[in-house]
Amino acid sequence: MTEVSAAGQGVERQYATHLAQGRFMIQQCAACARHVFPPRELCPHCDEDQLAWVAPSGQGTVYSTTTVARKAEAGGDYNVALIDLAEGVRLMTCVAGMDPATVCIGMAVRTQVGEGKDGPRVVCVAIAGSQG
Length: 132
What we know:
Blueprint: H1 11-20, E1 26-29, E2 35-36, E3 51-54, E4 59-68, E5 78-85, E6 90-93, E7 95-96, E8 108-116, E9 119-126
Parallel strand pairs: 7-9
Antiparallel strand pairs: 1-2, 1-3, 4-5, 4-8, 5-6, 8-9
């Protein structure tokens, strides 16, 4: 994988650069130490602009979930979920690798970088034995 510097780019571009490198990164404020996601120029908690990129633990819990019905020829049903990460931020994604109807609130998941139709994206997979 080619290393591409994210310095000197807007936060959305920096986030996309990290994903292209196979890394899911969130921001952490140097002033208040709280985590921030989605990427921002200013901390939404204290308005400081000293946000650094950090790798989250990847551990999360399904906060909400729904199944989007789609014809089989269009790819079949898929899941959309809101995931609360251990760092206190919320991520909208899907829980991959399982029947969309079996994803449930409270299920323990972990994040990983996967391939979407428009490039790399963050998806979640269920942690074995998690029932929610």
